[in-house]
UniProtKB/TrEMBL annotation:
GO terms (BP aspect): cell wall organization; proteolysis
Protein family (similarity comment): Belongs to the peptidase M15 family.
PANTHER family: OUTER MEMBRANE PROTEIN, PTHR37425
Protein name (database record): Murein endopeptidase K
Pathway(s) per entry: Cell wall biogenesis; cell wall polysaccharide biosynthesis
Co-factor requirement: Zn(2+)
InterPro entries (UniProt xref): MepK (IPR010275), Zn_M74/Hedgehog-like (IPR009045)
Recorded GO MF terms: metal ion binding; metallopeptidase activity
Length: 199
């Protein structure tokens, strides 16, 4: 292998990525189940996601930032996914959790609607059960514990507008849970639902 080939991002098929992420990045025996963490929540398989390169520009609460192409067609870039997984970790426990590709695709579509001029600031991504239990307003069965949700802010944009973009996307895709909490917007890849709560 030439040094030029070694420098190229490693592209692997989706199924191979699921196994590799579980075994290599997470070190778990049952890669698919533990990585995806879906449990008994059925995930949609939208035919509306175009098979093309997808980008994400994310930032978390400790200032870490990732701007990366994580998908080309149906192939996912393993190194990019590991970087995103690390950024979306439970910051209190410093533990990385599952990273369902559908959540990243949804965040990418939200960012596409808003424009790639600024990052999506992720207030909360994956949560351990312990962290979730310590939060006064967190649902006991929160999808954050399965890596299926993110609480986001877009710097310089009113949260009502962020929520409106998410609602339009939800209408188009036919799924997504969206919660407007005043200072941030919750999005998840569960069944279609919406709610608001001012914290």
């Amino acid at each position: 292998m030439s040094s030029e080939d070694a420098a190229k991002p490693r592209r692997i098929p989706r199924r191979a990525w699921l196994g590799a992420m579980g075994a290599a990045a997470l070190g778990v025996p049952s890669a698919r189940a533990d990585l995806l963490g879906y449990g008994d929540v059925p995930l949609p398989v939208p035919a509306t996601l175009p098979p093309r390169e997808r980008w994400l520009w994310l930032q978390n609460n400790v200032g870490e930032e990732v701007a990366v192409a994580y998908r080309a067609g149906q192939d996912y870039d393993l190194r990019a996914m590991v970087r995103i997984q690390r950024l979306l970790r439970d910051l209190r426990a410093d533990v990385a959790g599952p990273v369902p590709a559908l959540l990243l695709d949804m965040l990418s579509l939200i960012q596409e609607r808003i424009g790639y001029t600024r990052p999506l600031h992720v207030i909360s991504g994956y949560r351990t059960p312990q962290t979730n239990a310590s939060l006064p307003f967190a649902a006991p069965n929160s999808l954050h514990m399965r890596g299926m949700a993110a609480d986001i802010v877009v710097p310089g944009m009113a949260q009502a507008d962020v929520c409106a973009h998410a609602m339009l996307l939800s209408h188009h895709l036919g799924f997504m849970g969206i919660g407007w909490y005043g200072s941030f917007t919750h999005v998840d890849i569960g069944p279609k639902a919406s709610w608001s709560r001012m914290l």
